[in-house]
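Thread amino acids onto this structure.
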């Protein structure tokens, strides 16, 4: 493992490294720094110090300190929260619920569980935070207090089979019940009583207030508080010096200077001339349209294959994450036949020690771009992925949503890359985070019924076999197709373990017949899906409504239409077409917002683009706002002229008095 790879590996697991003179300082979550890693850090200290100084990662982030700020004024959203809010405006089925469900066996004290949860809510004000719109822009609103009540459902009168099916159905309904960002609360808890000492507990949060890393913090604090309260002891947890709102303000302040200019330049260069999307071999469905409806398939790799993957990664000097990513890239290459591939990953984005114990939505998305070809060997792809990962992690602080804003107005970026496929690897499972004394816990899988991407592969590299889940869009895939894809992914891994020098084209895991079979299954699923719908997707894009065929007439309408055509890649758009019916998404809103403001040379509240989703309504609103501003300027100018006129008259009158006094023989000292 190279020094860059080691640094990327550690940063991805929440380890904070920074130089202090000739010393290499660190802070790390419990059990992450194994004796072997500590020894390797000691051996490579000089290399890592040089990399940290070269990338300037730590200094760019720490140049402004975190400070508690007043809650009297408007509290901005973080860039990640703003991205969530944007997506929420474009869909009736937002994929923001994050359920955690467990079977609990033993003498559970429900009152103590509830008290522990409320202590966490008190400690982390983000769990008392909602979102409101002020002046067309979303802001955070912190409630001074909130008391959570765990809703209990008694299923003890049912038969064991009925209990299981009912608990699964009700837990799934709970996991999929939408939150109201404006009303809150954005955290719910429900308990199903299965037997005298048997329960199913589900805790659901909205991503606006908690990311995946935060879920681990929440579960760990819940266990610590429950253990302390059960002994009659006070909370063992220290108070948080800062809160998430302080981080959001700090993040905005950072962009007022040049702190992130080097990172922004890196990402712009990395994404120049990149493909806008993967082209799935699917008929009759636009890959840009995503309804966020999805399902999750859970899987586990064989124990011998899992161990072989770990052995090979050590032999090749790469992480398990790098090896799995290279295998995924290989699979995508063979499925889509595209040579320029982008896969996303998610990092905890807690490179500051101040953020390690805070709950909130800190997570950041990174682009991992690779170039593949038939002649490339898997080992060469491994080396390429290793460098791509190390470079991306060295520039991980730049917010994904801010990057989209910057790319939207960059004339050299012709296509906005979309993260259709995301891959994440964790080194622990949720049930390890929550430990309640005297109780046995086991994870209880529920379907949240949503998909943030076309494919989201989440794997866990804990003790035992590699396991994970594949979340997929039901607009593009059905269960059989996902089973085939997972089977081929496993076949890729088996092939490369035997010989990493094989060229990608010669890997036997997916021959032409198997690929044709997969595509056939894919399109059969799509044909059935389309047939089941009242309005198939192709009709949405044909603009068959006569009113929608009215072409732009005013200069402003033509400007808006031109931007829409470029971003949505459509030839003709009528002034009555609804932007979201044409496949518009939050990522497109960011592009349009940036370009409109640049062309019109004025500030436009981003909410206007959701409130007025047609060219005609948006044009009329912007014209009206422009006219209102013009009238306001005229009124201000008239007021200013009247004031100047009065001042001239007063000066003239004062001058006349002075002249009269002078003529009377008076004088001024």
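Threaded sequence (669 positions):
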């Amino acid at each position: 493992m190279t020094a860059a790879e080691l640094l990327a590996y550690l940063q991805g697991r929440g380890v904070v490294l920074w130089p202090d003179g000739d010393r290499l300082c660190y802070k790390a979550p419990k059990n992450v720094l194994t004796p072997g890693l500590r020894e390797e850090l000691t051996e490579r200290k000089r290399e890592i110090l040089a990399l940290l100084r070269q990338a300037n990662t730590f200094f760019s982030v720490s140049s402004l300190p975190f400070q508690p700020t007043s809650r009297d004024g408007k509290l901005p959203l973080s860039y990640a929260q703003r991205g969530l809010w944007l997506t929420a405006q474009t869909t009736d089925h937002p994929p923001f619920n994050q359920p955690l469900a467990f079977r609990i066996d033993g003498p559970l004290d429900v009152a103590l569980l509830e008290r522990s949860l409320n202590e966490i809510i008190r400690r982390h004000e983000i769990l008392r935070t909602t979102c409101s719109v002020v002046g067309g822009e979303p802001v955070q609103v912190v409630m001074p207090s909130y008391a959570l009540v765990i809703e209990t459902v008694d299923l003890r009168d049912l038969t064991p089979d009925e209990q299981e099916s009912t608990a699964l159905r009700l837990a799934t309904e709970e996991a999929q019940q939408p939150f109201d960002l404006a009303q809150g609360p954005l955290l719910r808890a429900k308990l199903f009583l299965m037997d005298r000492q048997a329960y199913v507990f589900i805790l659901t949060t909205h991503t606006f207030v908690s990311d995946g890393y935060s879920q681990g913090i929440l579960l760990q604090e819940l266990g610590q508080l429950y253990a302390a309260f059960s002994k009659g002891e006070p909370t063992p947890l220290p108070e948080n010096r800062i809160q998430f709102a302080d981080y959001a303000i700090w993040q905005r302040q950072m962009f007022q200077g040049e702190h992130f200019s080097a990172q922004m330049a890196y990402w712009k260069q990395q994404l120049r001339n990149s493909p806008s999307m993967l082209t799935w071999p699917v008929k009759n469905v636009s890959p840009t349209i995503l309804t966020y409806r999805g399902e999750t398939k859970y899987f586990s790799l064989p124990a011998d294959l899992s161990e072989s993957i770990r052995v090979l990664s050590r032999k090749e000097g790469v992480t398990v994450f790098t090896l799995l990513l290279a295998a995924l890239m290989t699979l995508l290459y063979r499925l889509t036949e595209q040579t320029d591939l982008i896969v996303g990953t998610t990092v905890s984005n807690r490179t500051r020690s101040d953020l390690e114990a805070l709950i909130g939505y800190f997570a950041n998305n990174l682009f991992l771009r690779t170039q593949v070809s038939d002649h490339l060997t898997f080992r060469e792809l491994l080396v390429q992925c290793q460098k791509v990962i190390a470079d991306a992690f060295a520039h991980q602080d730049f917010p994904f949503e801010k990057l989209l804003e910057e790319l939207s107005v960059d004339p050299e970026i012709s296509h906005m890359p979309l993260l259709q496929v995301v891959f994440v690897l964790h080194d622990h499972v949720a049930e390890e985070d929550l430990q309640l004394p005297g109780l046995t816990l086991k994870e209880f899988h529920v379907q949240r019924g949503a998909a943030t991407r076309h494919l989201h592969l989440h794997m866990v590299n804990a003790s035992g076999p590699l396991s994970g889940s594949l979340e997929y869009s039901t607009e593009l895939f059905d269960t059989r197709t996902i089973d085939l894809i997972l089977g081929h992914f496993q076949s890729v891994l088996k092939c490369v373990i035997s010989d990493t020098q094989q060229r990608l084209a010669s890997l036997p895991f997916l021959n032409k017949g198997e690929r044709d079979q997969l595509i056939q299954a894919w399109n059969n699923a799509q044909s059935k899906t389309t047939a089941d719908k009242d309005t198939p997707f192709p009709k949405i894009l044909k603009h068959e409504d006569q009113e929608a065929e009215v072409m732009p007439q005013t200069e402003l309408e033509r400007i808006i239409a031109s931007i829409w055509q470029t971003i949505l890649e459509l030839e003709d758009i009528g002034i009555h077409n609804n932007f979201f019916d044409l496949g518009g998404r939050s990522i497109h809103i960011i592009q349009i917002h940036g370009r409109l403001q640049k062309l019109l040379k004025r500030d436009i509240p981003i909410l206007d683009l959701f409130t007025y989703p047609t060219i005609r309504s948006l044009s009329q609103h912007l014209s009206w706002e422009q006219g209102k501003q013009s009238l306001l300027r005229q009124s201000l100018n008239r007021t200013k002229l009247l004031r100047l006129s009065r001042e001239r008259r007063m000066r003239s009158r004062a001058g006349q008095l002075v002249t009269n006094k002078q003529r009377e023989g008076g004088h001024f000292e």
